[in-house]
Amino acid sequence: MTSVGHPYARFRRAIERRALWHAEDAARELPNLSLEDALQLVHLYAERESPKYERAALRWLQRYLAEGSPRLQHVANAASDLAQRESDSSSIQRSV
User: Fold this and answer.
1) Which residues are registered as beta bridge partners of 2?
2) What pLDDT, on a 0 to 100 scale, did the predictor assign at position 1?
3) pLDDT values of the chain reduced to their tens digit, one per residue, 96 residues
4) What residues does each domain of the chain span?
5) CA of residue 81 relative to chain centroid, distance
6) How far apart are CA 40 and CA 28, in angstroms?
7) Distance, CA of 26 to CA of 11 (rounded, Å)
8) Residue 95: per-residue pLDDT
9) Residue pair 45/20 in contact by the 8 Å Cβ criterion
10) Per residue, what are the HEC states of the chain?
11) Measured between alpha carbons, how far is 49 from 56 in angstroms, rounded to an integer?
12) Main-chain phi, psi angles of 5, to 5 degrees
């Protein structure tokens, strides 16, 4: 634990503040990142148009399949939402 707090508390603050580098740093220190927290990090990658986005999104989908028993439609919706988020980020950047 560092002088600025427990890694999970730092991760939550970084996510709330949309601070990608700090969120990544805190996530690396955690023994496990929940599926929900991992998805928030994936969304932050998309917002920041990080080159890590696609790989992180695919890794999240793999975990989603492995850790639960989602219905096929839920998997399709999750994949579609992640693909759309990447597309939306790209189109917003191009229009600016």
Assistant:
1) 5
2) 47
3) 444 679 999 999 999 999 999 999 999 999 999 999 999 999 999 999 999 999 999 999 999 999 989 999 999 999 999 999 877 755 434 333
4) 1-32, 34-95
5) 13
6) 15
7) 5
8) 33
9) yes
10) CECCECHHHHHHHHHHHCCHHHHHHHHHHCCCCCHHHHHHHHHHHHHCCCCCHHHHHHHHHHHHHHHCCCCHHHHHHHHHHHHHHHHHHHHHHHHC
11) 12
12) 120, 170
Amino acid at 84: Q
What torsion, rounded to 10 degrees, do the Cα atoms 20, 23, 29, 31 define? -120
User: How big is the CA angle at 39 (ends 17 and 94), to the nearest 5 degrees?
Assistant: 70
Structure tokens at 30: 């955690």
pLDDT for res 52 = 97
Structure tokens at 69: 């028993």
